[in-house]
Amino acid sequence: MKNNHNITLNNINKSYQKGNNTVVVHDNFNLTIESGEFVALMGPSGLGKSTLLHLMGGLDQPTQGEVIIGTQRIDNLKQAQLTQWRAENIGFVFQSHHLLPVLSAQGNVELPLALTPLNKKQRQEHASYALELVGMSERANHYPKELSGGQEQRVAIARAIVSDPHILLCDEPTGNLDRKTADEILALLTQLNRDFGKTIVMVTHDKKAADYASRVINLETYIFEPKNIEVGERL
Amino acid sequence: MNMLILVWRNSFRKKVRFWLTCISVMVAFFLFTTLSGVNHALTANVSNSNQYRLMTSHKISLTQSLPINYKQKIAALPGVKQVSYASWFGGFYQNEKNQLPVTAVDHETYFDLFDEYYISPEQLTQWKNTRTGIVIGQSLADKYGWEIGDKVPLSSSIWMNKSASFNWSFTVSAIYQTKGQSGANNKVFFQHAYFDKGRAYAGNSMSWLSTEITGKANVEDVIVAIDKLFIHTNSPTRTTTEQVFIKERAQQFVDMAMVINLVVIAVFFTLLLIVCNTMIQTIRERNNESAMMKALGFSSLSLIQGIYLESLLLLGLGALAGSLLAYLLITAVGQNFNDFLPGISIAPSHYLTVFALVNIAAAFCSAVPALAIKRLVISETLGGQA
Known about the structure:
The complex is a heterodimer.
Chain A: E1 7-18, E2 21-33, E3 38-42, H1 49-56, E4 64-69, E5 72-73, H2 79-89, E6 90-94, H3 105-110, H4 120-133, H5 149-161, E7 167-171, H6 179-196, E8 199-203, H7 207-210, E9 215-218, H8 219-222
Parallel strand pairs in A: 3-8, 3-9, 6-7, 7-8
Antiparallel strand pairs in A: 1-2, 1-4, 4-5
Helix pairs in contact in A: 4-5, 5-6
Chain B: H1 3-11, H2 15-48, E1 53-58, E2 66-67, H3 70-75, E3 80-88, E4 91-92, E5 99-100, E6 102-105, H4 110-113, H5 121-128, E7 133-137, H6 138-144, E8 151-156, E9 167-176, E10 188-191, H7 192-198, E11 205-206, E12 208-213, H8 219-229, E13 237-241, H9 242-285, H10 287-296, H11 300-336, H12 348-375, H13 378-382
Parallel strand pairs in B: 6-10, 7-9
Antiparallel strand pairs in B: 1-12, 1-13, 2-11, 3-6, 3-12, 4-5, 4-8, 7-10, 8-9
């Protein structure tokens, strides 16, 4: 079961067209993240950390190469298939929480479940459980504007895990938070990894945040290693 | 979490903008529905009119009188079944705000020609035998609580009587009903003989003649014959079918309707731009949320459906309020100014048109946001620092 959700990037090339210039972000990039790992992707801006995260989550597609999640190759899926696949397999946590201001914390967490066959009562139960896991049960009926930044991010994490995805992709999840709140969020992610076996890939600039991960990949050094051999290093 | 709840809450996210846009939609549909009611009145009267009845008036204008003896002359023409005549009294009850469509008619013949007014034979006889008698519509009797035998003073802003007064005394002698046009139940008829003897001037004259022709008669031949009869007199005539007569009388409104039509088209066009702009602004403001929802697994189609439903709600509420206001106005006009626009009402089919328009407009207004949603690239919108 554990091996079924490995993240494998094979010979990834990713380039963008910027005016008349082609900007190469990744050239023949390889990476494997095993199921149940908590990986921190680090490095200076512009090296393509978020791009990697987007490729793993099916939000973007490589110019060349393979993105394989478990046994499913996703780089050649059509948009509709990718959308469906994301709903079932991936939870996202971004730097900005992007909660819907018109919905309460409970409503926001329930939102992804609208895509599932669960009935109203089941959806409410699942959302309540997710909120309980992130310690936000007391604030279930509060709207985003009534929550602090840390609380909003907790709700965003609850929304990411409510449909029980195997993989959590977190893009600078603590970027907007103070140290204390950031530590609370990181402890929560660690708990989700440790207690629930979620595979977590986190992009961060924060070395202290990276300390929470079981493996840290510094792209600055990693990219230039021959064949991107799997040698994640502790910073 | 239900998607419909999300649509509802998203709609009211910017309350001021929502209601201002909704009011502009309401104004457009108010104009559209009101115009539809006016058009209905104009067309309904023409189609309801009797094709075997001819109307003869002074060649110059309806305000010029014709001698009463024209009746006998026309009656003697071949193809003519019967002739009657009438004059406009233009009355009001108590004060000028209570305008009533009062007409002096030839009591011997008028209701034989105009058999769409149902009067019991006893009441008709009673009216014919009462010099000051009036025949009133059922809705008028209901409105003022008038009953047979009541003395009713009516005033005219045109006709002074021999007592140098504009106040005339009448007695309710009969009450009529009509079928079809509900608004036609508020008329008042009285004897032309009483009018002739009572008025201070212009005696033995009337405003127009109504001629019923036989089924075999050629309408054009009779029209030519009537006008030829008086061509060299001091009061030459112009005869038309009742349909043409009503159509011409309505012509002044038709032109106005055309102007209003153009205004409504302009208003609708502007409205579409306003609502389109609102929806484009809306989706632009929610770019990040839309991207997040797509990342969560919502398809572009489901987000487009949401924006369509929001447009539909905005347009639907406005259209409902506008149509309702127009309905109330048209109903009030129908009750109080029926003489000027008899049969004014909103055809049920109009509401189907409104329904279709709302849906088409909603689809139109959702088109650009739909394109934006479709083209939305999640990684670029939510993207980190690469």
